[in-house]
Design goal:
The complex is a heterodimer. By secondary structure, chain A is α/β, with parallel strands linked by helices. The mean pLDDT of chain A is 92. The radius of gyration of chain A is 16 Å and the shape is globular. Chain A has helices at residues 25-34, 86-93, 110-126, 151-158, 176-193, and strands at residues 2-5, 10-18, 45-48, 54-67, 70-78, 98-104, 136-141, 165-167. In chain A, strands 1, 2, 3, 4, 5, 6, 7 and 8 form an 8-stranded mixed beta sheet that branches. By secondary structure, chain B is an alpha+beta fold. Helix content of chain B is 43%, strand content 22%. Chain B has 4 helices and 6 strands. Chain B has helices spanning 10-26, 53-73, 112-135, 154-162, and strands at 4-8, 31-36, 41-46, 81-85, 90-96, 100-106. Classes of the chains: A alpha/beta, B alpha+beta. Chains A and B meet through β1, β2, β4, β5 and α2 of A and β1, α1, α2 and α4 of B.
């Protein structure tokens, strides 16, 4: 949940990148890190295994500037995608203000996407959140690969509300900032609308 | 469920800062750091030097969350204190109720016993401040502070990102 410091006029929010193993969550955050000016970002922390698989989380703090007089600070987290890190995923989701689901567009990964999305819904429910009402964006990643599922089919399988959907190639940055912006906008709008 | 979990006003910030600074002096600590469970820094005292406060806060919050997960696995409600001993610096991390985390970084000028003793007193003081914060009617959103983000436009957002 957000932390608002009225004295310092700061808003702190937490966004979590969720999705199946090797879908490109870390790649999204790495690209954002690479393309953000030094003054607007903190250290990128990756708690990864020796084979560069996320073990606990990646973390990137972004100081984006001011909106209506409030400095906005986003903390981006990724979860470990591998199925057996379920307990860690649940811990990281706690307190999140928004979620980006990164789906792997390759045909053999469709079932893994569906399973991961169910896992997300369950884990959020455990923390008292409902994915249907919380800020959320869906990213269809790896659209540059040859064996991808058509976008319409992926939407049919994975989209369950009117969430914004983005086609992406995270490794080259396509769709990365669009996805982040869409989720960040929902978080900020929601903060001010209640 | 509230959208804003924690809203600090100037008075709260001063009160928290007073407790944190006092603890640093009383415990002879290098750094004292107060954060929320999500890893957002609330107050700090001491010389951070090369230490990145945001990274420290995030990792400590992850550490506390993982430790609480472990506690539940073995049938405990929580492990409220963590202590990491290093060659030069040591870390004392403790939960302050369900919302806050207190980190004390100390070296040979202090001791675990002294830190534990002072943290206990500071924790009681922090409970008082948190109670005061919670007694204040919770803002339903940032609009409660006189700001309304409901009319946020795409260009507002684009500006935010394009500047960086």
């Amino acid at each position: 949940m957000s932390f608002v410091n009225y004295a310092a006029r700061e808003i702190n929010c937490k966004l979590v990148y969720f999705g199946p193993g090797l879908c490109g969550k870390t790649t999204n955050v790495q690209y954002i890190y690479d393309r953000t000016q030094a003054g607007a970002k903190g250290k990128l922390i990756s708690l990864a295994t020796e084979t560069d698989r996320t073990l606990f989380f990646d973390f990137l703090p972004l100081d984006l500037g001011s909106v209506k007089g409030f400095k906005t600070r986003f903390h981006l987290y990724t979860v470990p995608g591998q199925v057996f890190y379920d307990a860690s995923r649940r811990l990281i989701l706690k307190g999140s203000d928004g979620v980006v689901f990164v789906a792997d567009s390759q045909a053999p990964r469709l079932d893994a996407n569906i399973e991961s999305l169910r896992n997300l819904e369950e884990a959020l429910k455990e923390h008292g959140f409902d994915l249907r009402t919380m800020p959320y964006a869906l990213q269809l990643n790896k659209r540059d690969l040859p064996n991808v599922v058509p976008v319409d089919e992926m939407r049919r399988q994975l989209q369950f509300k009117d969430e914004p959907v983005f086609e992406a190639v995270a490794v080259s940055g396509v769709g990365v900032f669009d996805t982040l912006k869409a989720c960040a906008k929902q978080v900020l709008t929601r903060l001010g609308s209640r | 469920m509230a959208i804003v979990d924690l809203a600090l006003h100037a008075e709260d910030e001063r009160n928290l800062s007073a407790v944190v600074s006092r603890l640093r002096e009383d415990a002879n600590a290098r750094i004292v750091f107060l954060l929320d469970r999500n890893g957002h820094a609330l107050s700090m005292a001491g010389e951070m030097g090369e230490t990145d406060p945001t990274a420290l806060a995030s990792l400590a919050a992850g550490n506390v969350a993982a430790t609480e997960g472990l506690a539940r696995l073995v049938g405990e409600k929580s492990f409220t204190t963590l202590w990491h001993e290093g060659e030069r610096d040591s870390l004392h991390i403790s939960a302050v109720g369900p919302r806050l985390i207190l980190i004390v970084v100390f070296d040979e000028r202090s001791s675990l016993g002294l830190v534990r003793l002072r943290v206990r007193k500071a924790t009681a003081d922090l409970y008082g401040v948190v109670e005061q914060i919670q007694r204040r009617p919770a803002p339903a959103g940032v609009s409660a502070g006189g700001f309304d983000f409901s009319d946020l436009t795409d260009s507002d957002l684009d500006k935010l990102f394009d500047e960086n």
